[in-house]
Amino acid sequence: MDPITSDTYEVYLEELAEATLTQHLQRSNYSKIFVLVDDNTEKHCLPKLNSILAKHIDHVLKITPGEEHKTIQTCYALWQQLSNRGADRKSLLINLGGGVLTDLGGFVASTFKRGIDFINIPTTLLAMVDASIGGKTGVDLGSLKNQVGVINQPQMVLVFPELLKTLDTRQTKSGYAEMLKHGLILDAAYWECLRTEKNFSTAGSIQKSIAIKNQVVSEDPTEQGLRKILNFGHTLGHAIESYFLESSHKPPLLHGEAIAVGMILEGYLSHELKGLSKLSLQEIKETFLSHFNRVDFEEEDIKDIIDLMKYDKKNAHGNINFVLLQEIGSALTDVKVPENLFQKAFAYYKE
């Protein structure tokens, strides 16, 4: 399967990923190789990596899995471990894990000694098609998503779809939400194909989603314009994810579960403000609700979620900026939304 190329790095899949990693380590002469894992990837994925590495892993670093551990405190502990174990500017950090781990590991590598090389090996569908691609690294600030970080590209991203066999269905569906988003914002034919696909985690579909995200990121690496379309569903979705993460009476939602709700809500806003047809809106709602359980929202929940949106990274000059759809496959950025429509969007979701 051909690599997906950007200006600064490439994404390799399956057998080509193995060969490329071996070649890269042989010619790079790293002083030390560190691998970052969590409890799950240490057990299920590290043996795969050990079987293909041509060079010895000097140290394995481990974090506790979960969004609640994507913090600057976790970074501090990792910086300390790197320092204590003799890491220098010629060391390499391989991030072996899901989106939390690749975001955090990329940030640790980008800031340790002002930057060391890192490679992402995503182990969840969400990380394969989204989190590990594009160079966004960082951590949360309390329950607020990705408030601290930098954009810095990895040396490469290596995708092994076989690692998805270690996931439960809920985790896989979380990544499926981002794949559907890629179709909604840029490729109507891909949306149509994917939304009825029962086996959506094939290497071909993964490659297609990576290619779509890579196309957008390559044209706008620092998110000045086009790259903003990747945030469709995320303005409300991130606020929902943060609210459920910090709530004592709500079960936490996975990223894709929250973004699925966000895409229905922002689909409604698209219909009201940008001409998305009623038929397309209903298709979006039916598609996501056929794969994701409906989330219950009380009036107080909705008020708090709307308040959380003021912390969204896309906001500027006090305005909440949305990505909305003109039609399936075509998105608009920096759209201002009247506040009275938020309650109507939640009412539409709950119908």
Structure description:
The chain is α/β, with parallel strands linked by helices. The chain has two domains: 4-166, Rossmann fold; 170-350, Dehydroquinate synthase-like, alpha domain (Up-down Bundle), CATH 1.20.1090.10. It contains 14 helices and eleven strands. The strands form four sheets. A four-stranded parallel sheet has the order 4-3-5-6. The longest helix is centred in the last third of the chain and has 20 residues, at 255-274. The chain is globular, with a radius of gyration of 20 Å. The mean pLDDT is 94.
How many strands, what sense, and barrel or not for the largest sheet? 4 strands, parallel
Number of helices: 14
Beta strand %: 15-25%
CATH 2nd-level architecture of the largest domain: Up-down Bundle
Strand order of the largest sheet: 4-3-5-6
Shape: globular
Under CATH, the topology of the largest domain can be stated as Dehydroquinate synthase-like, alpha domain
What are the low-pLDDT stretches, counting only 5+ consecutive residues below 50? Answer: none
**Straight-line N-to-C gap:** 44 Å
Which structural class do the helices and strands define?
Answer: alpha/beta
* Radius of gyration over all CA atoms, rounded: 20 Å
Oligomer: single chain
| Helix/strand order | EEHEHHEHEHEHEEEHHHHHHHEEH
Number of structurally distinct domains: 2
- The CATH homologous superfamily name of the largest domain equals Dehydroquinate synthase-like - alpha domain
* Overall average pLDDT: 94
GO molecular function: 3-dehydroquinate synthase activity; metal ion binding; nucleotide binding
InterPro entries: Dehydroquinate_synthase (IPR050071), DHQ_synth_AroB (IPR016037), DHQ_synth_fam (IPR030963), DHQS/DOIS_N (IPR030960), DHQS_C (IPR056179)
Pfam family, one: DHQS_C
Organism: Flagellimonas allohymeniacidonis
